[in-house]
Amino acid sequence: MNFSKWIGAGLGWSFGGPIGAIIGLVLGSIADSLSKNGTPLLGDWQSKQKRPTYDSQPQARPQTQPGDFEVSLLILASVVIKADGHQDQRELDFVRQQFVNMYGQDRANHAFKLFKGINQQQIPVRQVCVQIQRMMDHASRLQLLHFLFGIAKADGMVTENEVSQIYTIAGYLGISSRDFESIKAMFYDSSDNAYKILEITKEASVDEIKTAYRKMAKKYHPDRVIHLGEEHQKGAVDKFRQVQQAYEKLQKERGF
Fold first, then answer.
1. What is the mean pLDDT of the chain?
2. Using CB atoms within 10 A of its CB, is residue 13 exposed (0-12), middle (13-18) or buried (19+)?
3. Domains, the chain, ranges and CATH?
4. Most confident of 4-18, 30-44, 58-72, 195-209
5. Any alpha helices (H) in the chain, and if so which ranges?
6. Average pLDDT, stretch 128-157?
């Protein structure tokens, strides 16, 4: 599979708006290189696609395609990696390894080639996130946030700058503070993490804990991102498992 076919497969709404501008710059430089070897230019493929419009009128969210999720993930990963003022090789390795785990070596190589081009640009964070918020379903946005915390933790610790940047991204993505704290708690080890993951306080009753568990299990169920493909369900399984573990921990502590 050549680069042109890979990037063309499964991409829909991300080729419009600010994300389209970012990817267009990257693809321009890549296409220049590919064209010297006789590889079909991406511009030919893009010119044939129906691009979405971004006006002020409310519109229904189209179903997010795997390619749109991947491009969104790469752009936001670049933002988080730069949040603490330098790029740690362990974070870059984490991004590459996650793509290998999800997509296999060949597809991961294409993704990382795109990522390196994105990483050289100044990202308009708010504009990019607003586009994602408008076009991507809530469950997929939660999955993005989970991945971003994984990147920040890849070097062994999450800095204040990284947390601040992810919090800003979450706000622009329309993710509530409670959802943010729930996912954040999955990457820390503290006595009240189980409560934070379930979005309750230590004062919650047993019935409230049970209700919270059912709510969070539904919110983080892997089937919520089934439209993104099996590879992204693996990441969703991690969130779902931590909800189960948080509930089991409270069961033992409270004896119910």
1. 80
2. buried
3. 3-175 (no CATH), 189-256 (1.10.287.110)
4. 195-209
5. 3-8, 17-35, 42-46, 66-81, 89-103, 105-118, 125-135, 138-153, 160-172, 177-185, 193-197, 206-219, 230-254
6. 90
